[in-house]
Design a protein that fits this description.
Helix 2 packs across helix 3. This protein has about 210 residues and is an alpha/beta fold. It contains seven helices and ten strands. The strands form three sheets. The protein has a six-stranded mixed sheet, with helices on both faces. It has a two-stranded antiparallel ribbon with strand order 1-4.
Length: about 210
Amino acid sequence: MIFNKDTAEKTAELLLQINAIKLNPKNPFTWASGWNSPIYCDNRLILSFPAIRNFVREEFSKHIEKEFGKPDVIAGVATGAIGIGMLVAEYMGLPFVYVRPEPKKHGRQNQIEGFIQKGQNVVVVEDLISTGNSSLLAVDALKEAELHVKGMVAIFTYGFDVATENFKKANVDLHTLADYEHLLHLAVAKNYITEKELATLQEWRKNPSTWSV
């Protein structure tokens, strides 16, 4: 669920401007999963643009407090959301931790890096939601540490049905700055794509694992 329409369209436009999101229906990308995709999203680029990263941290901070109340801790999902999560925590004046995909194999074998206490309220910051599986592993780690996960916020989601089901099953409240639907609407309006390319992009999301040009 997006926070609101205005934020979704503004965020989408900024991501397109800096090529954090690339749309290329004619020459699709190949994801690590092996899927062919007419879209590629790399939100790490946001960190290189001060005005845009400030917009993202301020929108996150405002909406986190509105939706969840002020938490005790902000947690970023490693590695993509560490930078943005830390910016949000700094802006809100809150402690920050980050969550690895799995515990380290050496040292203290931490999966959660940073200081936490049982019973604390935490909001999880993520950069991108595809299926939601890796994001929800971070939630599981925080719950195992006996923290109360108020919800998760992300910069962008593809809006896959499988992600919706995964978050519903995990009983995790997800809110995003932008999503695929508002991205496509904005991309057509601003002439990033044609109506024909729009149709291709809409078709891809119906069956992304089997789609091909």
